[in-house]
Protein backbone atom coordinates (compact mmCIF):
# COMPACT_ATOMS: atom_id res chain seq x y z
CA UNK A 1 0.00 0.00 0.00
CA UNK A 2 1.37 3.38 -1.01
CA UNK A 3 1.15 6.57 1.03
CA UNK A 4 1.09 10.06 -0.40
CA UNK A 5 2.65 10.26 -3.88
CA UNK A 6 2.87 13.49 -5.91
CA UNK A 7 4.71 14.26 -9.13
CA UNK A 8 7.98 15.90 -8.03
CA UNK A 9 8.14 19.59 -8.84
CA UNK A 10 4.75 19.55 -10.61
CA UNK A 11 3.02 22.90 -11.05
CA UNK A 12 -0.48 23.33 -12.45
CA UNK A 13 -1.20 26.53 -14.36
CA UNK A 14 -4.93 27.18 -14.32
CA UNK A 15 -6.57 27.68 -17.67
CA UNK A 16 -10.03 27.60 -19.15
CA UNK A 17 -10.15 24.59 -21.42
CA UNK A 18 -10.97 20.98 -20.65
CA UNK A 19 -8.09 19.50 -22.65
CA UNK A 20 -5.33 21.93 -23.44
CA UNK A 21 -4.70 22.75 -19.78
CA UNK A 22 -4.05 19.07 -19.07
CA UNK A 23 -1.81 18.78 -22.14
CA UNK A 24 0.23 21.85 -21.24
CA UNK A 25 0.61 20.55 -17.68
CA UNK A 26 1.67 17.10 -18.93
CA UNK A 27 4.29 18.57 -21.27
CA UNK A 28 5.57 20.87 -18.53
CA UNK A 29 6.04 17.85 -16.28
CA UNK A 30 8.37 16.44 -18.96
CA UNK A 31 10.31 19.67 -19.54
CA UNK A 32 8.49 21.56 -22.33
CA UNK A 33 6.87 24.76 -21.05
CA UNK A 34 4.11 26.05 -23.34
CA UNK A 35 0.93 28.01 -22.68
CA UNK A 36 -2.56 26.57 -22.64
CA UNK A 37 -3.43 28.59 -25.76
CA UNK A 38 -0.39 27.27 -27.64
CA UNK A 39 -1.25 23.68 -26.69
CA UNK A 40 -4.82 24.23 -27.90
CA UNK A 41 -3.78 25.78 -31.21
CA UNK A 42 -1.07 23.24 -32.00
CA UNK A 43 -3.70 20.56 -31.42
CA UNK A 44 -6.03 22.11 -34.03
CA UNK A 45 -8.41 22.49 -31.13
CA UNK A 46 -11.27 24.20 -32.95
CA UNK A 47 -14.08 22.01 -34.10
CA UNK A 48 -17.79 21.90 -34.68
CA UNK A 49 -20.02 18.87 -34.30
CA UNK A 50 -23.79 18.83 -34.76
CA UNK A 51 -25.49 15.81 -33.21
CA UNK A 52 -29.19 15.05 -33.32
CA UNK A 53 -31.02 11.95 -32.16
CA UNK A 54 -34.29 11.15 -30.37
CA UNK A 55 -32.30 9.30 -27.68
CA UNK A 56 -30.01 12.21 -26.86
CA UNK A 57 -30.67 14.59 -24.01
CA UNK A 58 -31.01 17.22 -25.30
CA UNK A 59 -32.03 15.87 -28.70
CA UNK A 60 -29.78 18.41 -30.44
CA UNK A 61 -26.20 18.98 -29.34
CA UNK A 62 -23.42 21.20 -30.66
CA UNK A 63 -19.80 20.71 -29.59
CA UNK A 64 -16.85 22.96 -30.32
CA UNK A 65 -13.63 20.93 -29.96
CA UNK A 66 -12.32 17.67 -31.45
CA UNK A 67 -11.48 14.55 -29.44
CA UNK A 68 -8.03 14.36 -31.08
CA UNK A 69 -6.55 17.63 -29.74
CA UNK A 70 -3.82 16.09 -27.59
CA UNK A 71 -2.67 13.58 -30.19
CA UNK A 72 -2.57 16.22 -32.93
CA UNK A 73 -0.52 18.63 -30.79
CA UNK A 74 1.96 15.88 -29.94
CA UNK A 75 2.31 14.96 -33.61
CA UNK A 76 2.93 18.60 -34.59
CA UNK A 77 5.50 19.00 -31.80
CA UNK A 78 7.19 15.64 -32.40
CA UNK A 79 6.31 14.67 -28.82
CA UNK A 80 5.80 10.94 -28.14
CA UNK A 81 2.35 10.09 -26.80
CA UNK A 82 0.95 6.73 -25.75
CA UNK A 83 -2.85 6.43 -25.77
CA UNK A 84 -4.05 3.53 -23.65
CA UNK A 85 -7.30 1.92 -22.55
CA UNK A 86 -8.10 -0.75 -20.00
CA UNK A 87 -11.46 -2.36 -19.27
CA UNK A 88 -10.44 -3.84 -15.93
CA UNK A 89 -10.78 -1.14 -13.22
CA UNK A 90 -7.96 -2.45 -11.02
CA UNK A 91 -5.54 -2.68 -13.94
CA UNK A 92 -6.62 0.76 -15.21
CA UNK A 93 -5.81 2.34 -11.86
CA UNK A 94 -2.55 0.43 -11.47
CA UNK A 95 -1.40 1.59 -14.92
CA UNK A 96 -1.89 5.32 -14.31
CA UNK A 97 -0.43 5.03 -10.81
CA UNK A 98 2.66 3.39 -12.29
CA UNK A 99 2.91 6.15 -14.94
CA UNK A 100 3.38 8.68 -12.15
CA UNK A 101 6.21 6.60 -10.71
CA UNK A 102 7.86 6.69 -14.15
CA UNK A 103 7.71 10.49 -14.12
CA UNK A 104 4.72 11.00 -16.41
CA UNK A 105 1.63 13.10 -15.69
CA UNK A 106 -1.15 10.92 -17.14
CA UNK A 107 -4.12 12.63 -18.78
CA UNK A 108 -7.35 10.84 -17.87
CA UNK A 109 -10.65 10.86 -19.76
CA UNK A 110 -13.54 11.30 -17.35
CA UNK A 111 -17.21 12.21 -17.05
CA UNK A 112 -17.29 15.43 -15.07
CA UNK A 113 -20.71 14.46 -13.65
CA UNK A 114 -18.88 12.04 -11.30
CA UNK A 115 -16.20 14.51 -10.20
CA UNK A 116 -17.80 15.96 -7.05
CA UNK A 117 -16.12 19.37 -7.28
CA UNK A 118 -18.02 20.10 -10.50
CA UNK A 119 -21.32 19.85 -8.62
CA UNK A 120 -23.39 18.89 -11.66
CA UNK A 121 -25.82 16.13 -12.55
CA UNK A 122 -25.41 16.69 -16.31
CA UNK A 123 -23.31 14.03 -18.05
CA UNK A 124 -20.30 15.22 -20.01
CA UNK A 125 -18.06 12.30 -20.83
CA UNK A 126 -14.69 13.01 -22.45
CA UNK A 127 -13.59 15.69 -19.98
CA UNK A 128 -9.83 15.40 -19.56
CA UNK A 129 -7.96 15.94 -16.33
CA UNK A 130 -4.40 15.35 -15.21
CA UNK A 131 -3.52 12.90 -12.45
CA UNK A 132 -0.88 14.65 -10.32
CA UNK A 133 -0.74 12.21 -7.43
CA UNK A 134 -2.62 9.97 -5.02
CA UNK A 135 -2.80 8.69 -1.47
CA UNK A 136 -3.99 5.11 -1.40
CA UNK A 137 -3.94 5.09 2.40
CA UNK A 138 -6.68 7.75 2.34
CA UNK A 139 -8.25 6.45 -0.87
CA UNK A 140 -7.91 9.71 -2.82
CA UNK A 141 -6.41 11.02 -6.04
CA UNK A 142 -5.19 14.55 -6.77
CA UNK A 143 -6.35 16.03 -10.09
CA UNK A 144 -5.32 19.18 -11.97
CA UNK A 145 -8.38 20.50 -13.78
CA UNK A 146 -8.96 23.60 -15.94
CA UNK A 147 -9.32 26.93 -14.19
CA UNK A 148 -9.01 25.57 -10.65
CA UNK A 149 -5.85 26.86 -9.05
CA UNK A 150 -5.38 24.04 -6.56
CA UNK A 151 -5.23 20.29 -7.05
CA UNK A 152 -8.62 18.69 -6.53
CA UNK A 153 -8.87 15.84 -4.04
CA UNK A 154 -11.20 13.12 -5.36
CA UNK A 155 -12.09 9.76 -3.84
CA UNK A 156 -10.65 6.88 -5.87
CA UNK A 157 -14.16 5.41 -6.06
CA UNK A 158 -15.48 8.63 -7.65
CA UNK A 159 -12.54 8.74 -10.06
CA UNK A 160 -13.28 5.17 -11.14
CA UNK A 161 -16.94 6.07 -11.77
CA UNK A 162 -15.83 9.08 -13.84
CA UNK A 163 -13.40 6.96 -15.88
CA UNK A 164 -15.90 4.12 -16.39
CA UNK A 165 -18.83 6.34 -17.46
CA UNK A 166 -20.95 5.53 -20.48
CA UNK A 167 -22.44 9.01 -20.54
CA UNK A 168 -22.87 11.23 -23.56
CA UNK A 169 -21.55 12.59 -25.77
CA UNK A 170 -18.86 9.91 -26.13
CA UNK A 171 -20.17 6.86 -24.28
CA UNK A 172 -17.67 4.45 -22.78
CA UNK A 173 -14.11 5.52 -23.57
CA UNK A 174 -12.36 2.46 -22.15
CA UNK A 175 -10.94 4.36 -19.15
CA UNK A 176 -8.65 6.02 -21.67
CA UNK A 177 -5.50 7.81 -20.55
CA UNK A 178 -2.47 9.34 -22.25
CA UNK A 179 1.19 9.43 -21.34
CA UNK A 180 2.85 12.41 -23.02
CA UNK A 181 6.61 12.95 -23.29
CA UNK A 182 8.62 16.00 -24.37
CA UNK A 183 9.76 16.32 -28.00
CA UNK A 184 12.97 14.45 -28.83
CA UNK A 185 14.39 17.45 -30.75
CA UNK A 186 14.08 21.24 -30.43
CA UNK A 187 10.75 22.50 -31.75
CA UNK A 188 10.88 24.39 -35.05
CA UNK A 189 8.19 26.84 -34.11
CA UNK A 190 7.48 28.43 -37.48
CA UNK A 191 7.02 25.02 -39.10
CA UNK A 192 4.95 23.76 -36.17
CA UNK A 193 2.62 26.76 -36.29
CA UNK A 194 2.14 26.50 -40.07
CA UNK A 195 1.47 22.77 -39.81
CA UNK A 196 -1.10 23.31 -37.05
CA UNK A 197 -2.87 26.12 -38.95
CA UNK A 198 -3.20 24.01 -42.09
CA UNK A 199 -4.41 20.98 -40.12
CA UNK A 200 -7.00 23.15 -38.38
CA UNK A 201 -8.43 24.51 -41.59
CA UNK A 202 -8.50 21.12 -43.34
CA UNK A 203 -10.28 19.70 -40.32
CA UNK A 204 -12.94 22.40 -40.46
CA UNK A 205 -13.43 22.30 -44.23
CA UNK A 206 -13.50 18.52 -44.67
CA UNK A 207 -15.50 16.35 -44.75
CA UNK A 208 -18.59 18.02 -46.20
CA UNK A 209 -21.01 15.67 -44.45
CA UNK A 210 -23.16 18.03 -42.40
CA UNK A 211 -21.98 16.54 -39.12
CA UNK A 212 -18.44 17.91 -38.71
CA UNK A 213 -16.79 21.26 -39.36
CA UNK A 214 -18.15 24.13 -41.41
CA UNK A 215 -20.64 21.91 -43.25
CA UNK A 216 -22.13 20.99 -39.86
CA UNK A 217 -22.39 24.69 -39.03
CA UNK A 218 -24.28 25.24 -42.27
CA UNK A 219 -26.70 22.39 -41.47
CA UNK A 220 -27.07 23.79 -37.96
CA UNK A 221 -27.91 27.20 -39.47
CA UNK A 222 -30.58 25.62 -41.67
CA UNK A 223 -32.21 23.64 -38.84
CA UNK A 224 -32.01 25.95 -35.82
CA UNK A 225 -35.18 27.88 -36.79
CA UNK A 226 -37.10 24.58 -36.31
CA UNK A 227 -35.48 23.42 -33.07
CA UNK A 228 -38.57 24.31 -31.05
CA UNK A 229 -40.72 22.21 -33.43
CA UNK A 230 -38.31 19.26 -33.58
CA UNK A 231 -37.86 19.00 -29.80
CA UNK A 232 -39.31 16.01 -27.96
CA UNK A 233 -41.28 18.20 -25.55
CA UNK A 234 -41.09 21.57 -23.83
CA UNK A 235 -38.40 20.43 -21.39
CA UNK A 236 -36.26 19.18 -24.29
CA UNK A 237 -36.81 22.42 -26.23
CA UNK A 238 -35.55 24.47 -23.30
CA UNK A 239 -32.62 22.08 -22.68
CA UNK A 240 -31.56 22.18 -26.37
CA UNK A 241 -31.11 25.94 -26.18
CA UNK A 242 -29.67 25.96 -22.65
CA UNK A 243 -27.14 23.20 -23.37
CA UNK A 244 -26.09 24.96 -26.58
CA UNK A 245 -25.47 28.12 -24.54
CA UNK A 246 -23.38 26.13 -22.04
CA UNK A 247 -21.33 24.40 -24.75
CA UNK A 248 -20.57 27.69 -26.47
CA UNK A 249 -19.89 29.96 -23.54
CA UNK A 250 -19.16 27.82 -20.48
CA UNK A 251 -18.05 24.21 -19.86
CA UNK A 252 -14.37 25.13 -20.13
CA UNK A 253 -14.55 26.77 -23.56
CA UNK A 254 -12.90 30.04 -22.56
CA UNK A 255 -15.83 31.84 -24.22
CA UNK A 256 -17.01 32.10 -27.81
CA UNK A 257 -17.11 28.35 -28.50
CA UNK A 258 -13.33 27.99 -27.91
CA UNK A 259 -12.69 30.67 -30.55
CA UNK A 260 -11.47 33.21 -28.00
CA UNK A 261 -8.88 30.72 -26.75
CA UNK A 262 -7.86 30.06 -30.35
CA UNK A 263 -7.47 33.82 -30.92
CA UNK A 264 -5.01 33.85 -28.02
CA UNK A 265 -3.07 31.08 -29.76
CA UNK A 266 -3.02 33.09 -32.99
CA UNK A 267 -1.67 36.15 -31.18
CA UNK A 268 1.12 34.03 -29.74
CA UNK A 269 1.70 32.21 -33.04
CA UNK A 270 2.19 35.55 -34.83
CA UNK A 271 5.53 35.84 -33.01
CA UNK A 272 6.68 32.65 -34.72
CA UNK A 273 5.09 32.99 -38.18
CA UNK A 274 4.74 36.37 -39.97
CA UNK A 275 1.81 35.19 -42.08
CA UNK A 276 -0.45 35.00 -39.02
CA UNK A 277 -0.19 38.74 -38.42
CA UNK A 278 -0.10 39.69 -42.09
CA UNK A 279 -3.47 38.01 -42.66
CA UNK A 280 -4.93 39.58 -39.53
CA UNK A 281 -5.90 36.18 -38.17
CA UNK A 282 -6.03 37.03 -34.43
CA UNK A 283 -8.47 39.92 -34.93
CA UNK A 284 -10.61 37.88 -37.33
CA UNK A 285 -10.89 35.05 -34.83
CA UNK A 286 -11.73 37.48 -32.02
CA UNK A 287 -14.61 38.80 -34.13
CA UNK A 288 -15.83 35.25 -34.77
CA UNK A 289 -15.61 34.49 -31.04
CA UNK A 290 -17.70 37.58 -30.26
CA UNK A 291 -20.33 36.33 -32.71
CA UNK A 292 -20.50 32.98 -30.91
CA UNK A 293 -20.91 34.74 -27.57
CA UNK A 294 -23.82 36.80 -28.94
CA UNK A 295 -25.43 33.61 -30.23
CA UNK A 296 -24.93 31.84 -26.89
CA UNK A 297 -26.66 34.69 -25.06
CA UNK A 298 -29.56 34.50 -27.52
CA UNK A 299 -29.87 30.77 -26.82
CA UNK A 300 -29.80 31.37 -23.07
CA UNK A 301 -32.66 33.84 -23.45
CA UNK A 302 -34.66 31.40 -25.61
CA UNK A 303 -34.23 28.62 -23.05
CA UNK A 304 -36.06 30.69 -20.46
CA UNK A 305 -39.03 31.58 -22.67
CA UNK A 306 -41.56 28.71 -22.94
CA UNK A 307 -42.29 27.66 -26.50
CA UNK A 308 -39.88 30.17 -28.03
CA UNK A 309 -37.94 29.35 -31.16
CA UNK A 310 -35.05 30.99 -32.95
CA UNK A 311 -36.10 34.23 -34.57
CA UNK A 312 -35.03 35.34 -38.02
CA UNK A 313 -32.34 37.45 -36.35
CA UNK A 314 -30.97 34.52 -34.33
CA UNK A 315 -30.95 32.24 -37.37
CA UNK A 316 -29.11 34.97 -39.29
CA UNK A 317 -26.43 35.00 -36.58
CA UNK A 318 -25.73 31.31 -37.23
CA UNK A 319 -25.65 31.83 -41.00
CA UNK A 320 -23.15 34.67 -40.61
CA UNK A 321 -20.94 32.61 -38.29
CA UNK A 322 -20.85 29.74 -40.77
CA UNK A 323 -19.96 32.16 -43.57
CA UNK A 324 -17.21 33.82 -41.51
CA UNK A 325 -15.66 30.52 -40.47
CA UNK A 326 -15.69 29.13 -44.00
CA UNK A 327 -14.02 32.28 -45.33
CA UNK A 328 -11.39 32.24 -42.58
CA UNK A 329 -10.42 28.60 -43.09
CA UNK A 330 -10.43 28.77 -46.89
CA UNK A 331 -8.01 31.69 -46.76
CA UNK A 332 -5.71 29.99 -44.24
CA UNK A 333 -5.71 26.78 -46.30
CA UNK A 334 -4.82 28.71 -49.44
CA UNK A 335 -2.31 31.25 -48.11
CA UNK A 336 -0.44 29.93 -45.07
CA UNK A 337 2.79 28.21 -45.98
CA UNK A 338 5.69 26.84 -43.92
Describe the structure.
The chain is α+β, with helices and mostly antiparallel strands and 338 residues long. The protein has 2 domains: 4-33 and 81-180, Phytochelatin synthase, N-terminal domain (Cathepsin B, Chain A, Alpha-Beta Complex); 189-335, no CATH class. 47% of the residues lie in helices and 13% in strands. The protein is built from 13 helices and 9 strands. The strands form 2 sheets. Strands 1, 4, 5, 6, 7, 8 and 9 form a 7-stranded antiparallel sheet that branches. A two-stranded antiparallel sheet has the order 2-3. Strand 7 (140-144) and strand 8 (152-155) form a beta hairpin. The N and C termini lie far apart (52 Å). The mean pLDDT is 93.
Helix content: 40-55%
Overall number of domains = 2
Computed CA radius of gyration, to the nearest angstrom:
20 Å
β-sheet strand percentage:
5-15%
Mean pLDDT: 93
Number of strands: 9
Rough shape? globular
Structural class category: alpha+beta
Could you tell me how far the N terminus lies from the C terminus, measured between alpha carbons in angstroms? 52 Å
Oligomer: single chain
**Would you identify the regions where 5 or more consecutive residues have pLDDT less than 50?**
none
Number of helices: 13
Largest sheet composition: 7 strands, antiparallel
Order of helices and strands: EHHEEHEHEEEEHEHHHHHHHH
Short recap of the structure:
The protein has 338 residues and is α+β, with helices and mostly antiparallel strands. It has helices at residues 20-29, 36-42, 69-77, 89-101, 156-163, 189-205, 213-223, 227-230, 234-249, 259-269, 274-278, 281-303, 312-335; strands at residues 4-6, 49-52, 60-63, 81-84, 107-111, 125-135, 140-144, 152-155, 177-180.
Amino acid sequence: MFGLVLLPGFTHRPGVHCGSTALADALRARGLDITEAMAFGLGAGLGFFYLDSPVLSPTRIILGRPWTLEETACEVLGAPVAVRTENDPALAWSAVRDAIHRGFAPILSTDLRFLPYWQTSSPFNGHRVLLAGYDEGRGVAFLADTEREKLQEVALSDLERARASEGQPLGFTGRQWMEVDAPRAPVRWREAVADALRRQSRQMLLPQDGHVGVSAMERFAAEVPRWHELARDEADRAWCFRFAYQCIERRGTGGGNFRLLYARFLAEAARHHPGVGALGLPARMEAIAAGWTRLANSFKDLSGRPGAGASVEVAAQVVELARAERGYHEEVAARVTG
